[in-house]
């Protein structure tokens, strides 16, 4: 089925990218805890590898985040009757895995922008936004998204960005459409030793 709102969706997505990018810079600049058993003489590569080995591999992380996005879409649709969500893979620039530099510059880790999800709902009202913002914050907090901020509660510019302990960035932007976006933090491929969390 063809989306009757492509121009509006593109406009909403374009308006959401700046706050999301700002939150991602904040996430990437957050300090990392080097494991206790890492020697003081360890190289930068060894320190980064020690940090990333505490995290799940990229495939496990992507699967976990996909489940979170499904739970968010289902809950928002059930509570707010926003209708069907569409996956907008073609709207995400460079959806291939990205380098983790400058956050992790010595290790070949992966950061993956997942495809956007959007709904062609009617104009989103202030009361709907308040419910959506609170639902997303509560559900995401249970999955480790405890840092973040509401970038805007202003009608027409509704935006919230949340960051988890591994540096993943989740955002919900809404005006005429609701748009969910998630970019993973830095993770190793499954060829590295398993994480020990």
Automatic annotation (TrEMBL):
Assigned keywords, A-Z: Cell membrane, Lipoprotein, Membrane, Palmitate, Signal
Keyword match Cell membrane: yes
Principal location listed in the UniProt entry: membrane
Gene Ontology CC terms: plasma membrane
Protein name per the record: LppA-like lipoprotein
Subcellular location as annotated: Cell membrane
InterPro entries: LppA/LppB/LprP
């Amino acid at each position: 089925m063809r989306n009757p709102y492509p121009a509006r969706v593109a406009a909403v997505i374009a308006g959401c990218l700046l706050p999301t990018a700002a939150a991602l810079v904040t996430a990437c600049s957050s300090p990392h805890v080097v494991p206790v058993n890492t020697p003081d003489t360890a190289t930068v590569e060894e320190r980064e590898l020690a940090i990333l080995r505490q995290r799940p591999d990229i495939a496990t992380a992507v699967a976990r985040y996909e489940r979170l996005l499904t739970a968010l879409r289902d809950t928002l649709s059930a509570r707010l009757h926003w209708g069907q969500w569409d996956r907008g893979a073609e709207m995400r620039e460079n959806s291939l895995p990205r380098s983790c530099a400058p956050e992790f510059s010595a290790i070949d880790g992966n950061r993956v922008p997942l495809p956007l999800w959007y709904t062609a709902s009617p104009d989103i009202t202030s009361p709907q936004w308040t419910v959506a913002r609170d639902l997303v914050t509560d559900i995401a907090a249970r999955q480790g998204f405890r840092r973040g901020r509401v970038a805007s509660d202003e009608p027409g510019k509704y935006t919230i960005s949340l960051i988890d302990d591994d540096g993943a960035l989740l955002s919900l932007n809404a005006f005429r459409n609701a748009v969910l976006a998630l970019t993973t933090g830095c993770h190793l491929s499954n060829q590295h030793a398993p994480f020990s969390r």
